[in-house]
Task: inverse folding
């Protein structure tokens, strides 16, 4: 493997590992804020117990997310110097906003929330956790705005062969950025709700603190429903944008090699395991559905991979502009099919809630424990599709990935850091998972929470 191949593998490793924690951190901050608000308004101890329990897990998720984010930024400058120079004039603004506004807000008030407990009024303390949640949501926005510029460059002019920021407003209101951002926030809602329900189901199956964890599920289920509806709507908007802005990615996601009008949605397809097999060996399809998703018309035309390749050769010059079709196709299928399972699970949960059986349905609780894993698979599949589907471009239409890596970094150097980062992530991930599961299994202390400062009990992790 070349230095470029290893650098791409290292980028994939660091990004996927980091993004395991991002939606969970965003979601947990919001979930804790909701429960603290419910405790502030009602005075019920059961909500204080939610804050106590989920607040500890939130802090753990934030800590690991920050560490992995730093490593991800480090490898940009190390392995992708040409890319960093190329996009520096564009990325400087949104990334500076993320650091100075969002991360500052998030980190400052997280510390305030931890250490000001019992020293400020309950209302002030409640405000601090909402500012933490707002900060994490804003942080995601600026990062997504930067990434979306790579998918759909806007607000720039070319100066001496490099893009120069011309309109920051165009960058942060990029229609791709807005749709992708909503999609990520809805993914955070799905992640936290399914994790919350799964952990709560584990305790309910043991008949442990039934009132506490039944309440946790009742708070999480509406978030799950909103996340499912929002994800569907944002995903639908992204699909239509892909047809216009990145048609090759959309066609690869459907293994659509030749233009169709009307276009059918592929349920299951196989083909030769090469980057671009040129055709499928078998393909089970639903007629008209892809046209409806992509164009809102039952007979709309969707361009095929082979035709888009011809257009790109005419526009950009000779080359292969097709991503690894099988990877894009199956990552998209993984995301869509597991999302369908999430939506069905949410519907079943609402029915059981209405029937008063959330705390007694053992089958639902067993399924809930396994469903807690699905959002992490879906989130990973979504990023794989997003990034692999853009290849061979690192910036759509402006810069090829093969021209973006650091020319003076050797294969051995990239291999060394790849091995080092993988070891760090393995150890860090193992420790984080062990701590998370250990804290999740503990539940909340059985003794009553004192009214003074009950909105946030002791959040110190015990070792």
Result:
């Amino acid at each position: 493997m070349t230095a470029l191949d290893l650098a791409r593998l290292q980028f994939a490793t660091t990004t996927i590992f980091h993004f395991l924690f991002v939606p969970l951190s965003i979601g947990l901050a919001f979930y804790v804020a909701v429960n603290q608000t419910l405790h502030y308004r009602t005075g019920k101890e059961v909500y204080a117990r939610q804050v106590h329990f989920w607040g500890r897990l939130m802090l753990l998720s934030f800590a690991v997310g920050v560490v992995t984010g730093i490593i991800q930024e480090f490898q940009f400058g190390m392995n992708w110097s040409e890319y960093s120079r190329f996009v520096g004039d564009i990325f400087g603004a949104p990334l500076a906003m993320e650091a100075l506004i969002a991360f500052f807000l998030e980190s400052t008030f997280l510390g305030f929330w931890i250490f000001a407990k019992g020293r400020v009024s309950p209302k002030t303390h409640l405000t601090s956790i909402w500012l933490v949640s707002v900060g994490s949501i804003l942080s995601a926005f600026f990062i997504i705005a930067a990434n979306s510029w790579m998918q759909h460059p806007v607000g720039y002019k070319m100066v001496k062969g490099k893009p120069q920021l011309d309109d920051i407003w165009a960058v942060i209101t990029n229609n791709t950025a807005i749709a992708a951002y909503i999609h990520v926030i809805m993914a955070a809602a799905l992640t936290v709700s399914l994790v919350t329900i799964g952990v709560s189901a584990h305790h309910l199956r043991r008949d442990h603190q039934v009132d506490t964890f039944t309440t946790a599920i009742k708070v999480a289920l509406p978030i799950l429903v909103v996340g499912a509806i929002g994800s569907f709507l944002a995903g639908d908007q992204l699909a239509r944008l892909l047809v216009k802005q990145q048609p090759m990615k959309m066609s690869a996601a459907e293994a659509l090699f030749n233009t169709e009008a009307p276009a059918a949605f592929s349920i299951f397809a196989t083909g030769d395991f090469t980057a671009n097999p040129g055709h499928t060996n078998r393909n089970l399809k639903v007629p008209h559905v892809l046209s409806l998703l992509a164009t809102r018309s039952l007979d709309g035309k969707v361009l095929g991979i082979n035709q888009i390749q011809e257009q790109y050769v005419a526009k950009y010059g000779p080359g292969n502009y097709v991503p690894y079709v099988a990877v894009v196709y199956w990552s998209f299928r993984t995301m869509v099919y597991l999302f369908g399972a999430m939506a069905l699970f949410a519907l079943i949960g609402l029915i059981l809630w209405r029937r008063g059986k959330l705390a007694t349905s053992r089958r639902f609780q067993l399924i809930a424990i396994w469903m807690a894993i699905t959002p992490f698979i879906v989130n990973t599949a979504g990023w794989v599709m997003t990034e692999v589907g853009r290849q061979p471009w690192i910036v759509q239409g402006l810069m090829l990935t093969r021209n973006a890596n650091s020319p003076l970094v050797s294969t051995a150097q990239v291999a060394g850091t790849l091995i080092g980062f993988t070891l760090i992530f393995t150890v860090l991930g193992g420790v984080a998972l062990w701590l998370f599961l250990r804290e999740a299994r503990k539940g909340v202390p059985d003794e009553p929470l004192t009214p003074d400062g009950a909105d946030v009990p002791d959040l110190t992790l015990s070792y």
Remarks:
- Strands lie at 156-159, 162-165, 265-270, 282-286, 393-395, 399-400.
- The chain has 15 helices and six strands.
- Confidence is low (pLDDT under 50) at residues 450-463.
